[in-house]
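User: Teach me something about this protein's shape.
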Amino acid sequence: MKDSTGTIHYRIGDATDPQGLGLKIITHVVNNQGGWGRGFVLSLSQRWLEPERAYRCWFHNREDALTGTPFALGQVQFVPVGNFVYVANML
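Assistant: First, the predicted structure itself:
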């Protein structure tokens, strides 16, 4: 994270457990092939079932069931996983 002076501050911790008050969005890039099972998604799946379920449904239906967002490159699916915490599946 950079501050207003351009200094980089490194944070160490669990990316699936964001800290602080207010809205938190955990962002990650997903593929457009329907695959889920390598990299950071493994950590997400260990913590919550919803992001994978929503992604697979989005892939299968070719659009998000709640928002109608098309399953296309550049699109983002926001999946609620807790109080003020969302996972952003970014194609």
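Now, about its shape. The chain is about 20% helix and 20% strand. The chain has a mean pLDDT of 92. If you'd like, I can walk through any region in more detail.
User: That's plenty for now, thanks!
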